[in-house]
Amino acid sequence: MAVLILVDHDGATVSQPTRSTVAAAKSLGEIHALVFGDAAAAAAAAAMPGVTKVLQSEDALYAHGLAEPISALLVSLAPNYSHLLAPASAAGKNVMPRVAALLDVQVLSDIAGVVDADTFVRPIYAGNALATVKSADPKKVITVRAASFDPVPATGGSAAV
User: How far apart are CA 128 and CA 103, in angstroms?
Assistant: First the structure.
């Protein structure tokens, strides 16, 4: 099944934490990206190697990045995806716990490694130890610690928008 990544961008370029999230998702399946913004932002997301499809919305409802409407949209898209990921940025940490609550699953926060589709490594005790956690939830809702994954290049891909 496919993986959906919530993209952080500045309107013209995709953030480095999002590119690290793409790197983390490579072993999980086909990668789709969700972009809120204009065509330039969608084109930047489509240029990331590993992304096969970009979903774009220019709807004013999402223009301010409010967690409630973005969470509702992610939940409506969730049946098509096994994993929903976002960088562990302020936006990702705001949206993904809401998505997890609406889907009635746990959120796997700040993962630092991917063992397999159900098993992840994440820091505990203020980063002084690492825990390997396995989730039995049907949908995995995840935030990714960007410093733990080398980001994919900003260019080189050609995904459909």
Answer: 31
CA atoms within 13 Å, Cβ hemisphere of 69: 10
DSSP class of residue 74? H
61, two tokens: 């409802």
Q: Give the residue among 125, 159, 122, 157 at the shortest CA–CA distance from 142.
A: 122
| pLDDT in single tens digits along all 161 residues of the chain | 899 999 998 878 899 999 999 999 999 999 999 999 888 888 999 999 999 999 999 888 888 889 999 999 999 999 999 999 999 999 999 999 999 999 999 999 999 999 999 999 999 999 899 999 999 999 999 999 999 999 999 888 888 88
Pairing between β-strand 119-124 and β-strand 113-114 as defined by DSSP bridges: antiparallel
Domain ranges of the chain: 2-148
Q: Is 10 exposed, middle or buried (0-12, 13-18, 19+ CB in 10 A)?
A: exposed
CATH of domain 2-148: 3.40.50.620
Say if residue 133 is exposed, middle or buried (CB neighbours under 10 Å; 0-12, 13-18, 19+).
middle
Edge-to-edge strand list for the sheet holding 113-114: 113-114, 119-124, 129-134
